[in-house]
Amino acid sequence: MNWTETLRTALEAVRAHRLRSILTMLGIVIGVSSVILTVGLGQGAQNKVKDEIAALGSNLLIVSPGSSTSSAGVRGGFGSATTLTTSDAEAIADKSVVPDVAAVAPTTSTSLSLTAGTSNWTTSVVGTTPTWPSVRARTLESGRFFTQSEVEHAANVIVLGSDTASELFSVGSPVGQTVSADGRTLTVIGVLKSSGSSNSGTSNDDTALVPLSTEEALAGTSSGSLATIYVQGKSADTLGAAYDEIDSLLLNLHGITSSSDADFSISSQDSLLDTANSTNKTLTVLLGGIAAISLLVGGIGVMNIMLVSVTERIREIGLRKALGATPRVIRRQFLVEASMLGLLGGVVGVLIGIVGAQVLPSMINQPVAVSVLATFAAILVSLALGIGFGVYPASRAARLTPIDALRSV
Amino acid sequence: MSTPVIDIRGVTKVYATGALEVAALREVDLSIAGGEYVAIVGPSGSGKSTLMHILGCLDVPTEGEYLLGGEDVAHMSENELAAVRNRQIGFCFQQFNLLASMTAWRNVELPLVYAGVHRAERRERARVALERVGLADRADHLPGELSGGQQQRVAVARALVTEPSLILADEPTGNLDSASTADVLDLFDELSAAGRTIVLITHEHDVAARARRQVHIRDGQVAEDSALAGTGEVRA
Questions:
Q1: Around A62, how many Cα atoms within 13 Å sit in the side-chain half-sphere?
Q2: pTM of the predicted model, to two decimals?
Q3: Which residues of B fall within a CB distance of 8 Å from A322?
Protein backbone atom coordinates (compact mmCIF):
# COMPACT_ATOMS: atom_id res chain seq x y z
CA MET A 1 0.00 0.00 0.00
CA ASN A 2 1.62 3.22 -1.09
CA TRP A 3 1.53 6.63 0.54
CA THR A 4 -1.16 8.08 -1.69
CA GLU A 5 -3.51 5.26 -0.72
CA THR A 6 -2.58 5.60 2.96
CA LEU A 7 -3.30 9.32 2.87
CA ARG A 8 -6.56 8.76 1.04
CA THR A 9 -7.67 6.12 3.52
CA ALA A 10 -6.78 8.38 6.45
CA LEU A 11 -8.63 11.30 4.89
CA GLU A 12 -11.69 9.10 4.34
CA ALA A 13 -11.59 7.98 7.96
CA VAL A 14 -11.31 11.57 9.17
CA ARG A 15 -14.21 12.56 6.93
CA ALA A 16 -16.35 9.57 7.88
CA HIS A 17 -16.33 10.64 11.54
CA ARG A 18 -16.60 14.34 10.92
CA LEU A 19 -17.86 15.54 14.28
CA ARG A 20 -15.45 13.37 16.20
CA SER A 21 -12.55 14.55 14.07
CA ILE A 22 -13.46 18.18 14.63
CA LEU A 23 -13.73 17.67 18.39
CA THR A 24 -10.39 15.88 18.38
CA MET A 25 -8.76 18.70 16.50
CA LEU A 26 -10.32 21.33 18.76
CA GLY A 27 -7.71 20.89 21.46
CA ILE A 28 -4.91 21.35 18.95
CA VAL A 29 -6.72 24.26 17.30
CA ILE A 30 -7.08 26.10 20.59
CA GLY A 31 -3.50 25.33 21.59
CA VAL A 32 -2.00 26.48 18.30
CA SER A 33 -4.07 29.64 18.03
CA SER A 34 -3.24 30.66 21.59
CA VAL A 35 0.46 30.02 20.97
CA ILE A 36 0.29 32.23 17.89
CA LEU A 37 -1.61 34.96 19.68
CA THR A 38 0.51 35.01 22.84
CA VAL A 39 3.77 34.99 20.91
CA GLY A 40 2.24 37.62 18.63
CA LEU A 41 1.22 39.79 21.57
CA GLY A 42 4.70 39.59 23.05
CA GLN A 43 6.27 40.36 19.71
CA GLY A 44 3.85 43.20 19.11
CA ALA A 45 4.58 44.77 22.48
CA GLN A 46 8.29 44.47 21.83
CA ASN A 47 7.99 46.11 18.43
CA LYS A 48 5.95 48.90 19.94
CA VAL A 49 8.49 49.58 22.66
CA LYS A 50 11.28 49.47 20.10
CA ASP A 51 9.50 52.02 17.93
CA GLU A 52 8.87 54.28 20.88
CA ILE A 53 12.44 54.14 22.04
CA ALA A 54 13.67 54.79 18.53
CA ALA A 55 11.25 57.75 18.41
CA LEU A 56 12.95 59.32 21.41
CA GLY A 57 15.70 60.42 19.07
CA SER A 58 18.84 58.91 17.64
CA ASN A 59 22.03 58.14 19.54
CA LEU A 60 20.36 59.34 22.68
CA LEU A 61 21.68 59.16 26.23
CA ILE A 62 19.30 60.00 29.02
CA VAL A 63 20.80 61.34 32.24
CA SER A 64 18.43 61.11 35.19
CA PRO A 65 18.92 62.26 38.75
CA GLY A 66 18.86 59.92 41.73
CA SER A 67 20.61 56.72 42.47
CA SER A 68 20.78 54.00 39.92
CA THR A 69 21.07 51.47 42.75
CA SER A 70 18.22 52.80 44.84
CA SER A 71 16.29 49.59 44.41
CA ALA A 72 19.06 47.63 46.08
CA GLY A 73 19.01 49.57 49.32
CA VAL A 74 18.18 52.82 51.02
CA ARG A 75 20.43 55.65 49.95
CA GLY A 76 19.18 58.67 51.83
CA GLY A 77 20.85 62.03 51.99
CA PHE A 78 19.84 63.96 48.95
CA GLY A 79 16.48 64.76 47.59
CA SER A 80 17.04 62.28 44.85
CA ALA A 81 15.30 64.31 42.17
CA THR A 82 17.41 67.40 42.54
CA THR A 83 20.93 66.15 41.93
CA LEU A 84 21.18 67.32 38.34
CA THR A 85 21.61 70.99 37.71
CA THR A 86 21.81 73.36 34.79
CA SER A 87 25.53 73.65 35.38
CA ASP A 88 25.82 69.86 34.86
CA ALA A 89 24.05 70.30 31.54
CA GLU A 90 26.34 73.16 30.57
CA ALA A 91 29.39 71.06 31.47
CA ILE A 92 28.18 68.18 29.32
CA ALA A 93 27.63 70.61 26.44
CA ASP A 94 31.27 71.69 26.67
CA LYS A 95 32.91 70.15 23.61
CA SER A 96 36.39 70.36 25.11
CA VAL A 97 35.39 68.18 28.08
CA VAL A 98 32.95 65.84 26.36
CA PRO A 99 34.03 65.66 22.72
CA ASP A 100 31.66 62.85 21.68
CA VAL A 101 28.48 64.76 22.48
CA ALA A 102 26.62 66.48 19.66
CA ALA A 103 23.89 68.29 21.54
CA VAL A 104 22.41 68.59 25.03
CA ALA A 105 18.85 69.34 26.01
CA PRO A 106 18.29 69.84 29.73
CA THR A 107 14.66 69.58 30.82
CA THR A 108 12.55 70.32 33.84
CA SER A 109 8.94 69.44 34.16
CA THR A 110 5.88 70.63 36.07
CA SER A 111 2.25 69.82 35.79
CA LEU A 112 0.36 73.06 35.16
CA SER A 113 -3.10 74.12 34.21
CA LEU A 114 -3.13 76.14 30.98
CA THR A 115 -6.04 78.37 30.12
CA ALA A 116 -6.98 79.76 26.73
CA GLY A 117 -10.17 81.71 26.59
CA THR A 118 -12.81 79.52 28.20
CA SER A 119 -10.98 76.22 27.86
CA ASN A 120 -8.35 74.92 30.19
CA TRP A 121 -6.13 71.87 30.15
CA THR A 122 -3.68 70.45 32.66
CA THR A 123 -0.56 69.13 31.08
CA SER A 124 3.10 68.55 31.75
CA VAL A 125 4.95 71.77 31.01
CA VAL A 126 8.54 71.08 30.10
CA GLY A 127 11.24 73.70 30.38
CA THR A 128 14.12 73.20 28.00
CA THR A 129 16.54 74.82 25.55
CA PRO A 130 16.42 75.35 21.75
CA THR A 131 18.37 72.09 21.18
CA TRP A 132 15.40 70.00 22.34
CA PRO A 133 13.71 69.41 18.94
CA SER A 134 16.87 68.09 17.32
CA VAL A 135 17.90 65.94 20.31
CA ARG A 136 14.44 64.42 20.68
CA ALA A 137 13.94 64.13 16.92
CA ARG A 138 10.79 66.22 16.93
CA THR A 139 9.62 68.70 14.35
CA LEU A 140 7.13 71.54 14.36
CA GLU A 141 3.77 71.39 12.69
CA SER A 142 3.53 75.17 12.58
CA GLY A 143 5.26 78.22 14.01
CA ARG A 144 8.76 78.07 15.44
CA PHE A 145 10.66 76.84 18.49
CA PHE A 146 12.05 79.33 21.00
CA THR A 147 15.52 80.77 20.67
CA GLN A 148 18.53 80.95 22.97
CA SER A 149 17.86 84.60 23.70
CA GLU A 150 14.28 83.78 24.70
CA VAL A 151 15.72 81.21 27.12
CA GLU A 152 18.12 83.79 28.53
CA HIS A 153 15.36 86.35 29.00
CA ALA A 154 12.77 83.94 30.32
CA ALA A 155 10.46 85.04 27.55
CA ASN A 156 6.79 84.34 27.93
CA VAL A 157 6.53 82.00 24.96
CA ILE A 158 5.18 78.46 24.71
CA VAL A 159 5.26 75.63 22.17
CA LEU A 160 2.31 73.26 22.41
CA GLY A 161 2.12 69.53 21.78
CA SER A 162 -0.49 68.70 19.14
CA ASP A 163 -2.95 67.20 21.67
CA THR A 164 -2.58 70.12 24.04
CA ALA A 165 -3.09 72.51 21.14
CA SER A 166 -6.30 70.84 20.05
CA GLU A 167 -7.59 70.71 23.65
CA LEU A 168 -7.02 74.42 24.15
CA PHE A 169 -7.81 75.73 20.69
CA SER A 170 -10.55 73.76 19.03
CA VAL A 171 -10.74 76.11 16.04
CA GLY A 172 -8.14 78.13 14.20
CA SER A 173 -4.37 78.12 14.45
CA PRO A 174 -3.04 78.45 18.00
CA VAL A 175 0.12 80.20 16.81
CA GLY A 176 0.02 83.84 17.84
CA GLN A 177 -2.68 83.29 20.42
CA THR A 178 -2.05 83.37 24.13
CA VAL A 179 -2.49 80.97 27.02
CA SER A 180 -2.22 81.79 30.65
CA ALA A 181 -0.53 79.64 33.25
CA ASP A 182 -0.14 80.45 36.91
CA GLY A 183 -0.97 84.10 36.31
CA ARG A 184 1.46 84.53 33.43
CA THR A 185 0.38 85.11 29.88
CA LEU A 186 2.36 83.10 27.34
CA THR A 187 2.30 83.56 23.58
CA VAL A 188 2.00 80.39 21.54
CA ILE A 189 4.84 80.45 19.01
CA GLY A 190 4.62 76.92 17.66
CA VAL A 191 2.87 73.54 17.64
CA LEU A 192 4.74 70.22 17.58
CA LYS A 193 4.03 67.56 15.02
CA SER A 194 2.26 64.53 16.49
CA SER A 195 4.46 61.55 17.42
CA GLY A 196 2.08 59.06 18.92
CA SER A 197 1.68 57.61 22.36
CA SER A 198 4.57 56.69 24.57
CA ASN A 199 5.48 53.48 26.38
CA SER A 200 3.65 54.37 29.56
CA GLY A 201 0.47 54.99 27.64
CA THR A 202 0.61 58.75 28.02
CA SER A 203 0.78 60.79 24.89
CA ASN A 204 3.99 62.42 23.71
CA ASP A 205 1.70 65.02 22.23
CA ASP A 206 0.04 66.00 25.49
CA THR A 207 2.76 68.42 26.56
CA ALA A 208 3.88 72.01 26.29
CA LEU A 209 7.38 73.42 26.06
CA VAL A 210 8.65 76.66 27.50
CA PRO A 211 12.15 78.09 27.90
CA LEU A 212 13.98 76.56 30.86
CA SER A 213 14.09 79.89 32.69
CA THR A 214 10.38 80.51 32.11
CA GLU A 215 9.54 77.09 33.53
CA GLU A 216 11.53 77.83 36.69
CA ALA A 217 9.57 81.01 37.16
CA LEU A 218 6.27 79.20 36.56
CA ALA A 219 7.07 76.37 38.96
CA GLY A 220 8.45 78.81 41.49
CA THR A 221 11.77 77.04 41.80
CA SER A 222 15.12 78.64 41.11
CA SER A 223 17.36 75.87 42.33
CA GLY A 224 18.49 75.11 38.82
CA SER A 225 17.72 71.42 39.31
CA LEU A 226 16.77 69.39 36.28
CA ALA A 227 14.46 66.47 35.70
CA THR A 228 16.34 64.91 32.83
CA ILE A 229 19.24 65.79 30.57
CA TYR A 230 18.88 64.44 27.05
CA VAL A 231 22.25 64.06 25.35
CA GLN A 232 22.72 63.29 21.70
CA GLY A 233 25.93 61.47 20.85
CA LYS A 234 27.83 62.22 17.67
CA SER A 235 27.34 58.74 16.25
CA ALA A 236 26.23 55.28 17.29
CA ASP A 237 29.89 54.15 17.34
CA THR A 238 31.00 56.76 19.82
CA LEU A 239 27.96 56.49 22.06
CA GLY A 240 29.86 54.28 24.50
CA ALA A 241 32.66 56.83 24.69
CA ALA A 242 30.17 59.63 25.25
CA TYR A 243 28.60 57.58 28.04
CA ASP A 244 31.97 57.18 29.79
CA GLU A 245 32.84 60.86 29.33
CA ILE A 246 29.55 62.03 30.85
CA ASP A 247 29.83 59.50 33.65
CA SER A 248 33.29 60.58 34.76
CA LEU A 249 32.46 64.27 34.28
CA LEU A 250 29.38 64.11 36.49
CA LEU A 251 31.12 61.99 39.14
CA ASN A 252 33.84 64.61 39.18
CA LEU A 253 31.45 67.55 39.38
CA HIS A 254 29.42 65.92 42.14
CA GLY A 255 32.55 65.00 44.06
CA ILE A 256 31.81 61.28 44.07
CA THR A 257 34.76 58.87 43.96
CA SER A 258 33.05 55.53 43.48
CA SER A 259 30.74 55.10 40.53
CA SER A 260 28.55 52.81 42.65
CA ASP A 261 27.66 55.84 44.76
CA ALA A 262 26.62 57.88 41.75
CA ASP A 263 23.64 60.19 42.38
CA PHE A 264 22.59 60.05 38.74
CA SER A 265 22.02 57.38 36.16
CA ILE A 266 22.66 57.34 32.46
CA SER A 267 20.61 55.13 30.21
CA SER A 268 20.83 54.57 26.52
CA GLN A 269 18.05 53.53 24.18
CA ASP A 270 19.56 50.05 24.14
CA SER A 271 19.43 49.75 27.90
CA LEU A 272 15.85 51.01 27.92
CA LEU A 273 15.00 48.46 25.26
CA ASP A 274 16.61 45.67 27.26
CA THR A 275 14.66 46.58 30.37
CA ALA A 276 11.38 46.76 28.51
CA ASN A 277 12.07 43.56 26.60
CA SER A 278 12.97 41.55 29.67
CA THR A 279 9.57 42.34 31.16
CA ASN A 280 7.84 41.52 27.91
CA LYS A 281 9.81 38.32 27.51
CA THR A 282 8.84 37.05 30.95
CA LEU A 283 5.22 37.64 30.12
CA THR A 284 5.51 36.05 26.68
CA VAL A 285 7.26 32.98 28.07
CA LEU A 286 4.64 32.62 30.76
CA LEU A 287 1.68 32.96 28.41
CA GLY A 288 3.38 30.88 25.74
CA GLY A 289 4.01 28.19 28.35
CA ILE A 290 0.34 28.06 29.24
CA ALA A 291 -0.55 27.88 25.56
CA ALA A 292 2.00 25.09 25.07
CA ILE A 293 0.39 23.11 27.88
CA SER A 294 -2.99 23.46 26.22
CA LEU A 295 -1.35 22.20 23.02
CA LEU A 296 -0.07 19.17 24.93
CA VAL A 297 -3.55 18.55 26.32
CA GLY A 298 -4.80 18.71 22.74
CA GLY A 299 -2.29 16.02 21.81
CA ILE A 300 -3.50 13.78 24.61
CA GLY A 301 -7.01 14.34 23.25
CA VAL A 302 -5.84 13.00 19.89
CA MET A 303 -4.46 9.89 21.59
CA ASN A 304 -7.66 9.38 23.53
CA ILE A 305 -9.83 9.55 20.45
CA MET A 306 -7.46 7.37 18.43
CA LEU A 307 -7.65 4.68 21.12
CA VAL A 308 -11.43 4.83 21.01
CA SER A 309 -11.24 4.70 17.25
CA VAL A 310 -9.06 1.57 17.30
CA THR A 311 -11.50 -0.20 19.61
CA GLU A 312 -14.47 0.93 17.61
CA ARG A 313 -12.98 -0.08 14.28
CA ILE A 314 -11.67 -3.44 15.45
CA ARG A 315 -13.72 -5.28 12.78
CA GLU A 316 -12.42 -2.99 10.09
CA ILE A 317 -8.87 -3.70 11.23
CA GLY A 318 -9.59 -7.44 11.25
CA LEU A 319 -11.03 -7.27 7.77
CA ARG A 320 -8.12 -5.25 6.41
CA LYS A 321 -5.73 -7.78 7.90
CA ALA A 322 -7.70 -10.68 6.42
CA LEU A 323 -7.49 -8.98 3.04
CA GLY A 324 -3.72 -8.77 3.28
CA ALA A 325 -2.79 -5.69 5.30
CA THR A 326 0.41 -6.28 7.25
CA PRO A 327 0.80 -4.94 10.80
CA ARG A 328 3.07 -2.27 9.39
CA VAL A 329 0.41 -1.05 6.95
CA ILE A 330 -2.19 -0.92 9.73
CA ARG A 331 0.19 0.95 12.02
CA ARG A 332 0.94 3.42 9.28
CA GLN A 333 -2.72 3.95 8.53
CA PHE A 334 -3.55 4.91 12.10
CA LEU A 335 -0.39 6.93 12.50
CA VAL A 336 -1.15 8.92 9.36
CA GLU A 337 -4.70 9.43 10.56
CA ALA A 338 -3.48 10.80 13.90
CA SER A 339 -0.91 13.05 12.26
CA MET A 340 -3.53 14.27 9.84
CA LEU A 341 -5.75 15.27 12.76
CA GLY A 342 -2.77 17.01 14.33
CA LEU A 343 -1.78 18.77 11.12
CA LEU A 344 -5.32 19.84 10.27
CA GLY A 345 -5.75 21.11 13.82
CA GLY A 346 -2.48 23.02 13.47
CA VAL A 347 -3.46 24.62 10.17
CA VAL A 348 -6.93 25.60 11.42
CA GLY A 349 -5.34 26.91 14.62
CA VAL A 350 -2.90 29.03 12.62
CA LEU A 351 -5.75 30.44 10.52
CA ILE A 352 -7.72 31.32 13.64
CA GLY A 353 -4.57 32.79 15.18
CA ILE A 354 -3.98 34.98 12.13
CA VAL A 355 -7.60 36.12 12.07
CA GLY A 356 -7.38 36.77 15.81
CA ALA A 357 -4.23 38.81 15.28
CA GLN A 358 -6.21 41.06 12.92
CA VAL A 359 -9.22 41.38 15.20
CA LEU A 360 -7.63 41.47 18.65
CA PRO A 361 -5.60 44.72 18.40
CA SER A 362 -8.73 46.78 17.93
CA MET A 363 -10.33 45.13 20.96
CA ILE A 364 -7.51 45.32 23.51
CA ASN A 365 -5.51 48.19 22.04
CA GLN A 366 -2.36 46.09 21.85
CA PRO A 367 -0.50 45.31 18.64
CA VAL A 368 -0.20 41.62 17.70
CA ALA A 369 2.67 40.70 15.39
CA VAL A 370 2.23 37.23 13.87
CA SER A 371 5.64 35.64 13.81
CA VAL A 372 6.29 33.48 10.75
CA LEU A 373 8.67 31.33 12.76
CA ALA A 374 6.10 30.72 15.50
CA THR A 375 3.48 29.90 12.86
CA PHE A 376 5.59 27.23 11.19
CA ALA A 377 6.80 25.93 14.54
CA ALA A 378 3.19 25.62 15.75
CA ILE A 379 2.20 23.63 12.66
CA LEU A 380 5.24 21.37 13.00
CA VAL A 381 4.61 20.86 16.70
CA SER A 382 0.98 19.91 16.12
CA LEU A 383 2.06 17.46 13.42
CA ALA A 384 4.61 16.03 15.84
CA LEU A 385 1.94 15.83 18.55
CA GLY A 386 -0.31 13.87 16.19
CA ILE A 387 2.50 11.47 15.36
CA GLY A 388 3.74 11.24 18.94
CA PHE A 389 0.36 10.57 20.46
CA GLY A 390 -0.66 8.36 17.53
CA VAL A 391 2.14 5.85 18.03
CA TYR A 392 0.54 3.98 20.90
CA PRO A 393 -2.98 3.64 19.42
CA ALA A 394 -1.48 2.72 16.05
CA SER A 395 0.70 -0.02 17.44
CA ARG A 396 -2.26 -1.35 19.37
CA ALA A 397 -4.19 -1.58 16.14
CA ALA A 398 -1.24 -3.26 14.43
CA ARG A 399 -0.90 -5.87 17.19
CA LEU A 400 -4.50 -7.05 16.93
CA THR A 401 -4.71 -10.56 15.55
CA PRO A 402 -7.09 -10.84 12.61
CA ILE A 403 -9.23 -13.56 14.21
CA ASP A 404 -9.71 -11.63 17.43
CA ALA A 405 -10.55 -8.55 15.43
CA LEU A 406 -12.99 -10.40 13.16
CA ARG A 407 -14.61 -12.36 15.97
CA SER A 408 -15.71 -9.39 18.02
CA VAL A 409 -19.11 -8.11 17.02
CA MET B 1 -2.78 -35.14 -10.37
CA SER B 2 -1.63 -31.62 -9.84
CA THR B 3 -0.76 -30.40 -6.35
CA PRO B 4 -3.85 -29.98 -4.20
CA VAL B 5 -4.84 -26.43 -3.29
CA ILE B 6 -5.13 -27.39 0.35
CA ASP B 7 -3.12 -30.12 1.95
CA ILE B 8 -3.13 -30.32 5.73
CA ARG B 9 -1.63 -33.19 7.65
CA GLY B 10 -1.87 -33.92 11.36
CA VAL B 11 -3.00 -30.38 12.17
CA THR B 12 -3.60 -29.82 15.86
CA LYS B 13 -4.60 -26.52 17.39
CA VAL B 14 -4.42 -26.10 21.13
CA TYR B 15 -5.75 -23.00 22.88
CA ALA B 16 -4.39 -22.29 26.31
CA THR B 17 -6.97 -20.55 28.44
CA GLY B 18 -5.29 -20.04 31.77
CA ALA B 19 -4.00 -23.34 33.06
CA LEU B 20 -6.46 -25.24 30.89
CA GLU B 21 -5.45 -26.42 27.45
CA VAL B 22 -8.23 -26.99 24.98
CA ALA B 23 -7.56 -28.85 21.78
CA ALA B 24 -9.85 -27.29 19.18
CA LEU B 25 -8.45 -29.49 16.41
CA ARG B 26 -6.83 -32.86 16.79
CA GLU B 27 -4.68 -34.38 14.07
CA VAL B 28 -6.83 -33.28 11.16
CA ASP B 29 -5.90 -34.43 7.67
CA LEU B 30 -7.61 -32.78 4.75
CA SER B 31 -6.77 -32.45 1.11
CA ILE B 32 -8.71 -30.34 -1.34
CA ALA B 33 -7.93 -30.33 -5.03
CA GLY B 34 -8.25 -27.39 -7.41
CA GLY B 35 -11.81 -26.84 -8.62
CA GLU B 36 -13.45 -28.64 -5.73
CA TYR B 37 -16.53 -27.24 -3.97
CA VAL B 38 -16.31 -28.38 -0.38
CA ALA B 39 -18.63 -27.74 2.54
CA ILE B 40 -17.20 -28.06 5.99
CA VAL B 41 -20.10 -28.88 8.27
CA GLY B 42 -20.31 -29.16 11.99
CA PRO B 43 -22.18 -27.93 15.02
CA SER B 44 -20.87 -24.97 16.93
CA GLY B 45 -17.92 -25.89 19.12
CA SER B 46 -16.91 -28.65 16.74
CA GLY B 47 -13.74 -26.85 15.72
CA LYS B 48 -14.88 -25.85 12.26
CA SER B 49 -14.21 -22.17 12.93
CA THR B 50 -10.71 -22.99 14.08
CA LEU B 51 -10.24 -25.04 10.92
CA MET B 52 -11.51 -22.13 8.86
CA HIS B 53 -9.03 -19.76 10.56
CA ILE B 54 -6.16 -22.11 9.82
CA LEU B 55 -7.31 -22.72 6.25
CA GLY B 56 -7.61 -18.96 5.82
CA CYS B 57 -4.10 -18.35 7.18
CA LEU B 58 -5.63 -16.17 9.89
CA ASP B 59 -4.05 -18.46 12.46
CA VAL B 60 -1.27 -21.03 12.45
CA PRO B 61 -1.57 -24.63 13.72
CA THR B 62 0.09 -25.69 16.95
CA GLU B 63 1.29 -28.83 15.22
CA GLY B 64 1.07 -30.31 11.77
CA GLU B 65 1.69 -29.26 8.20
CA TYR B 66 -0.30 -27.01 5.94
CA LEU B 67 0.56 -26.61 2.29
CA LEU B 68 -1.52 -23.99 0.49
CA GLY B 69 -1.01 -24.27 -3.23
CA GLY B 70 2.22 -26.13 -2.48
CA GLU B 71 3.48 -23.39 -0.12
CA ASP B 72 4.27 -24.27 3.46
CA VAL B 73 2.20 -21.76 5.41
CA ALA B 74 2.26 -23.49 8.82
CA HIS B 75 5.46 -21.77 9.87
CA MET B 76 5.13 -18.38 8.25
CA SER B 77 5.55 -15.02 9.95
CA GLU B 78 2.65 -12.61 10.30
CA ASN B 79 3.84 -10.53 7.36
CA GLU B 80 4.22 -13.55 5.09
CA LEU B 81 0.76 -14.79 6.11
CA ALA B 82 -0.71 -11.40 5.24
CA ALA B 83 0.81 -11.67 1.77
CA VAL B 84 -0.49 -15.24 1.34
CA ARG B 85 -3.99 -14.21 2.42
CA ASN B 86 -3.89 -11.35 -0.01
CA ARG B 87 -2.72 -13.45 -2.95
CA GLN B 88 -4.25 -16.88 -2.42
CA ILE B 89 -7.47 -16.50 -0.46
CA GLY B 90 -10.72 -14.69 -1.05
CA PHE B 91 -12.85 -14.35 2.07
CA CYS B 92 -16.61 -14.15 2.49
CA PHE B 93 -17.93 -13.57 5.98
CA GLN B 94 -21.29 -14.02 7.64
CA GLN B 95 -21.37 -10.27 8.46
CA PHE B 96 -20.24 -9.35 4.90
CA ASN B 97 -17.64 -7.05 6.52
CA LEU B 98 -17.89 -4.33 3.94
CA LEU B 99 -16.53 -0.92 4.94
CA ALA B 100 -19.59 1.27 5.32
CA SER B 101 -17.94 4.52 4.26
CA MET B 102 -16.72 3.15 0.93
CA THR B 103 -18.67 2.52 -2.25
CA ALA B 104 -19.08 -1.02 -3.58
CA TRP B 105 -16.22 -0.76 -6.06
CA ARG B 106 -13.87 0.76 -3.46
CA ASN B 107 -14.66 -2.20 -1.20
CA VAL B 108 -13.99 -4.62 -4.02
CA GLU B 109 -10.65 -3.05 -4.93
CA LEU B 110 -9.39 -3.11 -1.32
CA PRO B 111 -7.37 -6.38 -1.60
CA LEU B 112 -5.71 -4.98 -4.72
CA VAL B 113 -4.73 -1.85 -2.78
CA TYR B 114 -2.82 -4.05 -0.34
CA ALA B 115 -1.36 -5.99 -3.27
CA GLY B 116 0.06 -2.71 -4.60
CA VAL B 117 -1.86 -2.77 -7.89
CA HIS B 118 -2.12 0.51 -9.76
CA ARG B 119 -5.24 2.56 -9.53
CA ALA B 120 -6.47 2.24 -13.10
CA GLU B 121 -5.96 -1.51 -13.11
CA ARG B 122 -7.66 -1.81 -9.73
CA ARG B 123 -10.67 0.02 -10.97
CA GLU B 124 -10.96 -2.13 -14.06
CA ARG B 125 -10.56 -5.39 -12.16
CA ALA B 126 -13.10 -4.30 -9.54
CA ARG B 127 -15.52 -3.49 -12.34
CA VAL B 128 -15.04 -6.93 -13.90
CA ALA B 129 -15.53 -8.64 -10.52
CA LEU B 130 -18.72 -6.67 -9.84
CA GLU B 131 -19.96 -7.56 -13.30
CA ARG B 132 -19.24 -11.20 -12.53
CA VAL B 133 -21.59 -11.08 -9.52
CA GLY B 134 -24.18 -9.09 -11.47
CA LEU B 135 -23.78 -5.80 -9.62
CA ALA B 136 -21.99 -3.64 -12.19
CA ASP B 137 -24.79 -1.06 -11.94
CA ARG B 138 -24.37 -0.81 -8.15
CA ALA B 139 -20.64 0.00 -8.22
CA ASP B 140 -21.08 3.51 -6.86
CA HIS B 141 -23.51 2.58 -4.08
CA LEU B 142 -22.54 2.49 -0.44
CA PRO B 143 -23.11 -0.85 1.35
CA GLY B 144 -25.91 0.75 3.35
CA GLU B 145 -27.82 1.34 0.12
CA LEU B 146 -27.70 -2.33 -0.86
CA SER B 147 -29.78 -5.31 0.29
CA GLY B 148 -28.17 -8.07 2.35
CA GLY B 149 -27.93 -10.37 -0.65
CA GLN B 150 -26.38 -7.62 -2.73
CA GLN B 151 -23.89 -6.83 0.03
CA GLN B 152 -22.82 -10.46 0.18
CA ARG B 153 -22.41 -10.48 -3.59
CA VAL B 154 -20.17 -7.42 -3.31
CA ALA B 155 -18.19 -9.39 -0.72
CA VAL B 156 -17.95 -12.29 -3.17
CA ALA B 157 -16.72 -9.87 -5.83
CA ARG B 158 -14.08 -8.68 -3.36
CA ALA B 159 -13.09 -12.32 -2.77
CA LEU B 160 -12.79 -12.88 -6.53
CA VAL B 161 -10.91 -9.76 -7.49
CA THR B 162 -7.41 -11.04 -6.70
CA GLU B 163 -8.02 -14.27 -8.64
CA PRO B 164 -7.23 -16.31 -5.53
CA SER B 165 -6.59 -20.06 -5.58
CA LEU B 166 -9.20 -20.50 -2.86
CA ILE B 167 -12.50 -18.87 -1.92
CA LEU B 168 -13.19 -19.31 1.75
CA ALA B 169 -16.75 -18.57 2.80
CA ASP B 170 -17.61 -18.57 6.50
CA GLU B 171 -21.38 -18.99 6.96
CA PRO B 172 -22.00 -16.74 3.95
CA THR B 173 -25.76 -17.20 4.15
CA GLY B 174 -26.10 -16.99 7.92
CA ASN B 175 -27.46 -13.46 7.80
CA LEU B 176 -29.58 -13.76 4.65
CA ASP B 177 -33.21 -14.50 3.97
CA SER B 178 -34.05 -17.54 1.86
CA ALA B 179 -34.30 -15.66 -1.45
CA SER B 180 -30.90 -14.00 -0.96
CA THR B 181 -29.48 -17.32 0.27
CA ALA B 182 -30.55 -18.96 -2.96
CA ASP B 183 -29.04 -16.05 -4.86
CA VAL B 184 -25.67 -16.34 -3.21
CA LEU B 185 -25.61 -20.15 -3.42
CA ASP B 186 -26.44 -19.97 -7.12
CA LEU B 187 -23.49 -17.63 -7.48
CA PHE B 188 -21.23 -20.17 -5.76
CA ASP B 189 -22.55 -22.89 -8.07
CA GLU B 190 -21.66 -20.73 -11.06
CA LEU B 191 -18.20 -20.00 -9.71
CA SER B 192 -17.64 -23.68 -9.03
CA ALA B 193 -18.77 -24.55 -12.53
CA ALA B 194 -16.25 -22.00 -13.79
CA GLY B 195 -13.50 -23.94 -12.04
CA ARG B 196 -13.07 -22.02 -8.78
CA THR B 197 -12.00 -23.81 -5.62
CA ILE B 198 -14.56 -23.05 -2.93
CA VAL B 199 -14.55 -24.00 0.73
CA LEU B 200 -17.78 -23.16 2.49
CA ILE B 201 -18.14 -23.41 6.25
CA THR B 202 -21.68 -23.86 7.50
CA HIS B 203 -23.84 -25.54 10.07
CA GLU B 204 -26.87 -25.67 7.81
CA HIS B 205 -27.24 -29.00 6.06
CA ASP B 206 -29.29 -27.72 3.15
CA VAL B 207 -26.57 -25.19 2.40
CA ALA B 208 -23.90 -27.87 2.71
CA ALA B 209 -25.91 -30.06 0.35
CA ARG B 210 -25.19 -27.64 -2.48
CA ALA B 211 -21.49 -28.48 -2.30
CA ARG B 212 -20.12 -31.46 -4.15
CA ARG B 213 -18.16 -32.70 -1.18
CA GLN B 214 -18.99 -32.51 2.50
CA VAL B 215 -16.54 -32.74 5.36
CA HIS B 216 -18.12 -33.18 8.77
CA ILE B 217 -16.19 -31.99 11.77
CA ARG B 218 -16.95 -33.19 15.26
CA ASP B 219 -14.94 -32.74 18.43
CA GLY B 220 -11.99 -31.35 16.55
CA GLN B 221 -11.69 -34.24 14.15
CA VAL B 222 -12.93 -35.12 10.70
CA ALA B 223 -15.90 -37.35 11.45
CA GLU B 224 -17.02 -37.96 7.91
CA ASP B 225 -15.74 -37.01 4.47
CA SER B 226 -18.03 -37.69 1.54
CA ALA B 227 -15.01 -37.94 -0.74
CA LEU B 228 -13.61 -40.83 1.29
CA ALA B 229 -16.94 -42.49 1.97
CA GLY B 230 -18.31 -41.88 -1.50
CA THR B 231 -17.84 -44.01 -4.57
CA GLY B 232 -15.25 -42.67 -6.86
CA GLU B 233 -14.71 -38.95 -6.27
CA VAL B 234 -11.17 -38.12 -7.14
CA ARG B 235 -8.75 -37.34 -4.36
CA ALA B 236 -5.42 -35.86 -4.92
A1: 18
A2: 0.72
A3: 56, 58, 85, 91, 97
